[in-house]
Amino acid sequence: MKTLSKLVSTSSVSLLVITSPVLISGSHKKINEVSVASTPAISAANYTSLFSANTTKTNNSIKYAAAIATNKSTNNANYAASAAARKAFEIKMVIREATSIYDSMRLGRRGYHNLLKRGIVHKSNVLSICDFTQSSRHKRLYVIDVTHRKLIYNTFVAHGMNSGVEYATSFSNQPESFKSSLGFFLTNKSYVGRNGLSLKIIGLEKGYNDLAAKRNIVLHGADYIGNEYLANNGEMGRSLGCAAIPTQVNPKIIKSIKNGSALFMYYPAKKYLSSSSVING
User: Fold this and answer.
1) Is domain 94-275 in CATH 3.40.630.30, yes or no?
2) Rounded Cα–Cα distance for residues 107 and 273 (Å)
3) Residue 248 has what DSSP assignment?
């Protein structure tokens, strides 16, 4: 048995056609040659034209790809610059926040020790500081275990509706002002009122917070402060002057600080800092 093959040529193309195996004998008919008449020949002119078209298409594709790559590179550079700017801003805010926390803690400790010397603080192992230099979007209430020097709780706290929107910048000791008050307070007994479990606080600084009881300023839980409220409303809610904290942590915090611990509402108001009878003791 042999395999037949035939080289078929056209004006521009040569094809090697391999036929199927056949027996060579006189009793078999001759195998028909494969016809290539139906395959049109490609002239040199047509080939040149086709090549030129393909080259143009290829060049356009290369230019398009280069443009995409350049645009992507530019976008990446812009994104990197933007990311770097955001990072720098975040670092700046962290430093600013750390500085404000340090100042509030420093002044808080000074006032706390002065109150200890006077025998006013009965629950000396706990100090609470509300840092009003921070946004209400931040957890700016710190409950500190003074004995073991560790943070017990860190949560959100609302300020008075007339003290500001995101930041508290205006403070008052006057009834119906609906503003927060500055200075040192002494925690008192807990009770259940219209805001649920609440904590009475006593203002210790004349002219700054000594009318707290008359104003019914207390610490209580509220559903208008916390992550969920912020996510749904775009900003934290505000109180009528009370220190309102998330209802989820309210019972635990009240239990930790009630009955005679110090609570410091801090803001770097020059007049207050220079005249505070507790800080300057």
Assistant:
1) no
2) 9
3) T
